Amino acid sequence: MMHTERVRCVGGVVHDPAGRLLLIRRANEPGKGLWSVPGGRVRPGESDAQALVRELREETGLDVRPGELLGTVARGVFDIHDYSCHGTGGPLRPGDDAADARWVSAAEYHELDRDGEIVDGLTEALRSWQALPRS
């Protein structure tokens, strides 16, 4: 029996004061070209909080303060631990693994989801955590 090494990842669920959700368009596989919450791999010796701060700065330019764990999702070899995060500043701009980054309203999210532009499973996870865009 082959044992596959699990890869610990984090995702940041960030809402702006208007209730819009921060999304990035993935520049690389898995999910290239699709919208998701920003995040990535936890490096050796790094805490989830440190990984969140680093990944969100790399992918969106924003500084965040990590909050509570919303839930965990398994995608292939990736175990993704999604946390609520509070934006504390920085200019919103895509970088690193993100082809684009933007704040998305409930109507915009619904449109992206309807058109199949959201990564698989994200909508269901966000809905179960009451973390979809609120505006």
CATH class: Alpha Beta
Oligomeric grouping of the chains: single chain
First-to-last CA distance: 48 Å
Tally of domains: 1
Residue-averaged pLDDT = 95
Q: What is the overall shape?
A: globular
Tell me the CATH superfamily. Nucleoside Triphosphate Pyrophosphohydrolase
- CATH-level-2 architecture: Alpha-Beta Complex
Largest sheet: 4 strands, mixed
Low-confidence stretches: none
Helix amount, in percent?
10-25%
Tally of alpha and pi helices: 3
Number-wise, the strands total: 7
Strand order of the largest sheet: 4-1-6-5
Helix and strand composition category: alpha+beta
Topology pattern, helix = H, strand = E: EEEEHEEEHH
Which characteristics define this entry?
alpha+beta, 21% helix, hydrolase activity, single chain, three-stranded antiparallel β-sheet, 135 residues, globular
Describe, in plain words, how this protein is organized in 3D.
This protein is an alpha+beta fold and 135 residues long. It has one domain (7-128): Nucleoside Triphosphate Pyrophosphohydrolase, CATH 3.90.79.10. 21% of the residues lie in helices and 38% in strands. It contains three helices and seven strands; from the N terminus they run ββββαβββαα. A four-stranded mixed sheet has the order 4-1-6-5, covered by helices on one side. A three-stranded antiparallel sheet has the order 3-2-7, covered by helices on one side. A hairpin with a 2-residue loop joins strand 5 (63-75) and strand 6. The longest helix has 13 residues, at 48-60. It is globular and about 45 Å long. The mean pLDDT is 95. GO terms for molecular function: hydrolase activity. Keywords: Hydrolase.
